[in-house]
Amino acid sequence: MNSLFKRLPRNRLAATRRSSRRRLHTQPHPLLATFSRLCVEGPFPAALALLPDLASAGLRAEPVSLTRLVKLCVRHGTASDGRIIHRHVAAHGALSQGGLFVSNSLVSMYVKFGLLDDALRLFDGMPDRNVVTWTTVVAALANADGRKEEALRFLVAMRRDGVAPNAYTFSSVLGACGTPGVLAAMHASTVKVGLDSDVFVRSSLIDAYMKLGDLDGGRGVFDEMVTGDSVVWNSIIAGFAQSGDGAGAMELFMRMKRAGFSANQGALTSVLRACTGMVTLEVGRQVHAHVLKYEKDLILHNALLDMYCKCGSLQDADALFRRMPQRDVISWSTMISGLAQNGRSTEALSVFDLMKSKGVAPTRITLVGVLFACSHAGLVEDGWYYFKSMEKLFGIRPEKEHHNCMVDLLGRAGKLDEALKFIHEMSLDPDSVIWRTLLGACRMYKNANLAAYAAKEILKLEPDDQGARILLSNTYADLRQWTDAEKSWKAMRDRGVKKEPGRSWIELEKQVHVFIAGDLSHPCLDSIVQELNRLIGRISALGYVPQTEFVLQDLPIEQKEDLLKYHSEKLAIAFGTMHAMEGKPIRIMKNLRICGDCHAFAKLVSKSEAKVVIIRDPVRFHHFQDGACSCGDYW
């Protein structure tokens, strides 16, 4: 080194020595250097353990290092560790030295540990706050249960403090808008500051409108977009699906595809649920093609499996179930319930046995599916076995859903007195669902006295429940007790209650056609009636006779036959046979339980036309083929 200095000119030599002394002077203390490295690389416990050593040596860590330590704490530490860091920086001046930088990281830390009140105490003591500070607290309050109004108040305080909200602030707080008026005001604020065109703000606006049930408001925000964005497309699709507008969700999904955007897992799951509700299998199969790129997404595959089961396509469901790279208890439970709902109860119980052999522990949902399988196959002894042993074998205490399944099991088997005894001896208080299940069984077996008792129990719990009155009046009508039926109908008329008409719908070329009992307004009506007459002629040769006892009105036979003829499922079946494709079943969805006459009609049409007809009612599927039904005439 000295020889080198000797060769340098005098002025350069002096400068080099000054630079060398400056480097020696600014060299960080070894303890600080170690601390800084550990805050970047970890391990966290080692970095945390150095805080007392720094304090003893009178050393102050750089704000950047302390912020990194806080982030490490969130990932690998606990709330207690976070408080240790907070006390250290407060005691040794790091909050004043590093100011906002360190304070903001601590506020965020408390929020992420779920310690919102600690975050607010720190927030209140901060001399300075910026948009990051305010936004962290506003977002935390907006996401906390019961504190959404507080989030809105903080937003107002933020603006009074002279801090302008950014896109993330608005995105966070929009979900806290609990009324249309507040949301409209917040929407106007985003427009005023020019942030309404931000993709995340727009997506949050759509979500907020959807949560309030304002589909038109959400659609309006979406339609104002100058250019599309996949985030917003996915948001609007999910919103429509979750709000129950399956048709709207699917229409938007088709538009999204045509616009060249790809759907994310959330949107695909939403569309699959929409397909499930609408029983639009062909659209569901198109969604399946998009699911293939998410090969290991279990949630998405479970939604796809559920869609196939609830659209009555067990062949597709079984193929998917076998190919799934992994299965969880939801996968198994979905398959068990799907088989049971489609009339394949024995197979459902076999899958349950296979599930247990694979070491997968059932949940309460699984056992609801198992008891449903027993109920809809009349397996009374098996149902009792599973119900009585579920706590002992699986540690699952029977809940109301399981008790309801048992009432359904006994009721369907005609054991009405045993079902009533079971209800009275339940360890839980029976709810209206359980009494309604018994009432449905009373109607099936025409027990008017017990039906009246069940209906009174329902009305004690839910005085405005009109379904109970309708079921009771139908029970009286089944028994031709017209005076009692008329009393029930009059009571409903006085209350302004109208019976829900039977509706059936069928998908054809990605369009859903809806038929309503007695409604002859379909544009293809003439052709449908002609086809219906042809079918009735064909099945009459096989022994079909209209079962007029299913018309719950005191009318002449001819009028009863005419009413039966135009039941919604008959119209849908006729429309389906008109457009049936070779090798493809006719799939129909119903809003009400299929009546006995339509059930007989569908069985004979499946034989005369050599077609598979699948009808889904609110509870189960009926697969009609070769003159027989998968329910075994037990529904």
Structure, described:
This protein is mainly alpha-helical and 635 residues long. Helices cover 66% and strands 4% of the residues. The chain contains 36 helices and six strands. The protein has a six-stranded mixed sheet, covered by helices on one side. Helix 20 runs antiparallel to helix 21 and helix 33 crosses helix 36. The longest helix has 17 residues. The protein is elongated and about 105 Å long. The N and C termini lie far apart (99 Å). The N terminus is likely disordered.
Give the neighbour order of strands across the main sheet.
Answer: 2-1-3-4-5-6
User: What amount of the residues lies in strands?
Assistant: under 5%
- Radius of gyration (CA) equals 34 Å
Label the structural class: mainly alpha
Mean pLDDT metric: 85
Main pleated sheet:
6 strands, mixed
For the termini, the CA-CA separation is 99 Å
Query: What's the count of strands?
Result: 6
Helix fraction?
A: 55-70%
Subunit organisation of the chains: single chain
* Low-confidence residue ranges: 1-8, 12-25
**Count of individual helical segments:** 36
Q: Could you say which overall geometry the principal axes of the C-alpha atoms support?
A: elongated
Pfam families: DYW_deaminase (PF14432), E_motif (PF20431), PPR (PF01535), PPR_2 (PF13041)
PPR repeats: 130-165, 229-263, 297-327, 328-362
Keywords: Repeat, Transit peptide
Protein name: DYW domain-containing protein
List keywords for this structure.
single chain; 635 residues; 6-stranded mixed β-sheet; 36 helices; 66% helix; elongated; disordered N terminus; PPR_At4g14850-like_plant; DYW domain-containing protein
